[in-house]
What we know:
Elements: H1 9-19, H2 23-31, E1 43-49, E2 53-58, H3 63-73, E3 77-84, E4 101-103, E5 106-111, H4 129-149, E6 155-159, E7 164-169, H5 172-175, H6 179-188, H7 210-230, H8 237-244, H9 249-258, H10 265-284, H11 293-302, H12 308-312, E8 318-319, H13 351-361, H14 364-368, H15 374-383, H16 388-417
Antiparallel strand pairs: 1-2, 1-3, 3-4, 3-8, 5-7, 6-7
Helix pairs in contact: 1-13, 4-7, 7-11
Amino acid sequence: MARFEPAALPELLPVFYRRLFPHGAYGRWLGYGGVVKSYFQLREFSFTLRDDVYVRFQSFGSPQELERELQRTNPYKIDIGAVYSHRPNQHNTVHQGAFQPQEKELVFDIDMTDYDDVRTCCSSAEICSKCWTLMTIAVRVIDRALVEDLGMRHRLWVYSGRRGVHCWVCDDDVRKWSPALRAAAVEYLTLVKGGPETVKKVNLSEPIHPFIRRSVAVVEKYFEAYALLGQDILGSPESWDKVLALVPEEHREALQGEFPKKRDSGQRWELLKGQMEKTRRLAAAGKGTACFADWEIMLQYCFPRLDINVSKGVGHLLKSPFSVHPKTGRISVPLDLQRLDQFDPFAVPTISSLCHELDTAGSDGEQEDSGETEPKRRVRDYKKTSLAPYVRVFEQFVEEMERARRGERLRRSDLQGEF
């Protein structure tokens, strides 16, 4: 893969926006099938330009106008905001207080830095294959709940380009949700609570909500490989003391005495888990109180950590899919949930590698097809590169939304025909 150098961005970005960015599917996504004629025109975009020049309240009359502006300004980063009551680029001409966000996708932002208290392999902006499992778990837990518990259908999961993932829930009714509804959804999906000073951040008691049981079942699939082998959370007295601090005092002493006799994290975990399961069996027989310390530990170490402010604010901006990350050069690509466990953030194409792939493909094809129109040539261009499978995931997401929209229109016309 061609090495990415941030200094090369000014010469690479024009190629990216002209030959690789999926303008067609992107416009179809944010236009939502012309649900309202002016819907796209009322959407805010913000651009981060060269030298950290930040331009908010951009809006465009059509996807084609946005495409031209992207190719003219070549932004280092694109953020997407709300659909407003008035065109964002005219917000200064509107009476104060009248310019208000009306709709936006429900978005989630999950950042690896929020797990620094429970990962030992990396910290801050660093990631590796070991801790990336936390993002896999986050997508699995949240996506299952969005579909099965909250009845949401159209979810676009996107790699941020560096150390996290974003989710865009695009259902028509969800886009109209108030900040209070959005906050309630995040609250439902939150189990890890408390700041840096809080030692025990997950507290469970009976009856256990089905959401928690199902989340534990998801975490359990990854826990051994991630926490016991990868992070070795019970590998030394220092690390197991941190875990045992989450266990009630009446169970802690016995475990502290037995842990040094065990060979590794796996054996120590089996001991702890067995002791907690015993309390639950006894409690089911009416003897004593059930203890869920093993579940609490799994959740504290692995459960998704959401930023409520990103999700609840209708006017909050979030980085666009297919942005280029200015520090890593990686493209913010959609995730294929069918192949989520195989996703490797380090294998995501960079803007340098994509431009190199275009160069390697050669200019012979361009000379042969000189009569080809620009949009057709551009589609052929991205298909020559490793960006193609990610664009296909995005196109399938847009196509599924369009199919659902057509089905809903047919259903409504059929209902009207009955009266």
